[in-house]
Every structure is written in structure tokens, then in C-alpha cells.
Fold these 2 entries.
Entry 1:
Amino acid sequence: MIVPSLLSADFSRLEQSLRAVERAGVDMVSVDVMDGHFVPNITFGPIIVSAVRKLTHLLVEAHLMITDPISYIPEFAKAGADYISFHVEADGDPGEAVRLVKKSGAKAGVVVKPKTGLDKVESILDQVDLLVIMTVEPGFGGQGFMEEMLPKIEQARTLREEKSLRYLIMVDGGIHKDTVPLAVSKGADLLVAGSAVFGGDDIEGAVRRLQDAAGLGD
Ligand code: DX5
């Protein structure tokens, strides 16, 4: 499934952008939250999730690239995030973060940076709904897909099968028509795409081209 990342959207035309991805038939959008500390960039907070919530019925995933996710999870849930994904490299106990996401009424995702091995999340994989594998260094859209992450995607699929777990595998970063088949072939269920979707004028067409590349085209 293609998950447009609003990081690259034109926020002066947010409603039109959301209508375009809705027309393309996506089910979820991703909101990249950055605090300027965990990553060297600042984007937006719960207020944007609330705005997106008012504009669309699509599922909203809040990707928290912040140092202290535990302090902010309830606010993002209240703002209307359906999925809240936090980084295992952030402060706080990952198990506590998962419990807090669920207590707040959202589904839980855990994210690993490129240099972080899946061994760091293994203890909570039976509790999360989403495992997000970054295929770029978090912080900016428009970066190149790190093909050296492909074995990690495959490892995530193998782990899920071996342990009979149920998390979805989300791949985030550098997704475009040539990298979609690579990620899907290794087990990606969800593909986050920002610049490939919002980089040009034809947003709906861009999503459809990515769906076709993933073999999802209708
Ligand atoms: C990085 C962001 C990006 C974004 C997708 O911190 O998480 O990966 O979602 O951006 P593109 O598709 O432009 O790489």
C-alpha cells in the first residue's frame, strides 16, 4: 500500500493534496513529526494532525522523530492519529511507549534508523502493529533509497513468520517507482512516499504510478 508522507506536501494547499491522494485510493497518510533535536530538522506537532484529521477520513500515521515520544503520545492520539510510530533510539522504555500508545487509543509502530538492527526491537515485536524500517537517515525528504536496507526488510518478514507475529512492515524513505518493487519483493506491506508523490503537479497520477510499480494498480 502506498502511504503518502505529507512532509513534502504543499501546506498552503493541504486539502487539495489530501483530495488527490484520496482519489488515488490510498488508505493512510503519514505525518512526519520532527523536534529539531532527535533529527536536525523541525516540522510540526499535534496541531497539524488535528488539521489533517478534520480534512480527511484516511488513516493518519504520526511518525514521531522526537527525543521524548512518551511525553507527547497522548497529545498525538487526542489530535486524531490512528497510528503513532516512535523511534526505538529515542528516550524512554519502548515497552512503556507501546503501552501508552495503546492506552491512548491508537495503534503502535516502532521505527528503526538505518544503523539500528532489529535485535533492538525484538522484545516488543509481539506488541506492535507496525515495524517501520527507515531506508534513509530520518530528518529530510528527497534522499536516496539505501539499498543496503533490503536485507533488513527481508529479516523483518522472516522474523514475523518464524514467531507468528502480526505487525505490518512499513518502509520509509527514498520510495519511488524504481525502489518500490525492491522493497515489496523483500516484504514491505506499506511504502511511505513523500517527494515521489508531492514533488510534481500530478499527485494522483504519481500515486497511481507507485501503485502500478507495486503491482497494486487496479
Ligand atoms: C525522513 C522522512 C521521509 C519521508 C519520505 O525523515 O520520514 O522518509 O517520510 O520522504 P521521501 O519519500 O521524499 O524520501
Note: The two ends are 12 Å apart (CA to CA).
Entry 2:
Amino acid sequence: MKLKYFSHSSFQLTANSGIKILIDPFLDGNPTSPVKAEDVDAEYIILTHAHDDHIGDSFSIAKRCSPLFICVNELAEYCKAKGFEAHNMHIGGGYDFEFGRVKFTIAHHGSMTPDNSYAGEPAGVIVSIDGKNIYHTGDTGLFYDMKLIGEMTPIDYMLLPIGDNFTMGITDAVKAVEFTAPKIAIPMHYNTFPVIKVDPNEFKTKAETNGINCIVMEYGEEIEL
Ligand code: NI
Ligand code: MN
């Protein structure tokens, strides 16, 4: 399978079967994204929470591609109210889709929609495809249960925020990867706006000092997992 990074918290997973899954596609309003919403397509869109830098361009992409949204119950209902198809899930629950398994985890954050609707709890998500477990933490502060998440599901790739202010900063993110112990850590949610400007290589150096391999992905880069 392949993992593509658009910047911020936006990723695209492509299963060996060719099925494409977008996570938090924030492209047109994202000053760091090298691609626009019209350039991507997907069969599924996973949303970690409803903030505008995560819902992003989901609905314009959905109008064109008719994907199935996968998110927590309240946000799934919000997507349905906008006229889209959604699979309702919730924190702690997993479900086997045609491409693989999706399980939602806790995240410590907020989740109101851009038009001030209630969207339930924010979440992280573990996506298991083609024998690999990818943990996208969503926006979150550090929490000790990341240790439990890593124990219950050995994580191959952990995608986690390092930008500080709204989420973990570098010091907390280094502790997060120590708790979760992924094979590879990939930083996200940094340098999109001045308030979350940090040096991802500082995170990489500190994580690797603790024995966790780290890849700082370029904007638009795609890697084979
Ligand atoms: Ni957020
Ligand atoms: Mn965010």
C-alpha cells in the first residue's frame, strides 16, 4: 500500500487493491498543500474531527466522487444531513471495510463544525490495510493511553501532530512515540500557519535519540509502506 502526504493532517492511503482513502483532506484553504481538492479522488473519506482544517474540502470532493465517509456517529450524521453517505462509528469500535479495518481511538481536543454544529468527540484512527497498521492520532494532546493503544495494536506508522498551540508540541510528541512505540513516526500538523511553526527535524532527532525511526515527509510525497 501507499501513503501520500498533502501537508497539515491530510493523507491519502492507496491499498494494493487500488482503493483510495483520504484522511482529513484540507487542500484548497491550506497554504502548504501542493494539490487542490479537484486533483484528488477517493472511495472513502475518514474524518478525525469536524474542525475546518480537517473537514477541509471533504464535501466538494464528495460531490464529485461520492465516497463513503467514516467517522464518529455525530459527525457521520452531520455528513448525512449535508447529503452524503456515511458509516457511523465511535471511539473504541472497529469495523472491517472492503479495504481493511478502521478503529477509532480517543483524542483530547474539540470538534465543533465550521457552522457551529455539534460533531461529537474528536478521535484518532487506526487503519489496518494490507498487513500494516497506521495510527493517525488526529488533533490531540499527549495522553498515557497511547501506551495501551500501541500494546493492543502494534503500530507500523504513527502520524502525529507536533505543531504545538492546538495539539502536542515536540516535547510531548516525543513522549507520545515513546508510549506508542511505532516502527516509524511521521510528524504532521506543523508549519501550516505561523502559530504552529516548528522544525520537524528537531522532532526527528529527538525521537531517533529515543530509538524511534522517523520520516519527515515532503508535501506531496508518496511512500510505499
Ligand atoms: Ni482541530
Ligand atoms: Mn487541526
Note: Helices lie at 52-55, 58-65, 73-81, 146-152, 170-180, 200-209.
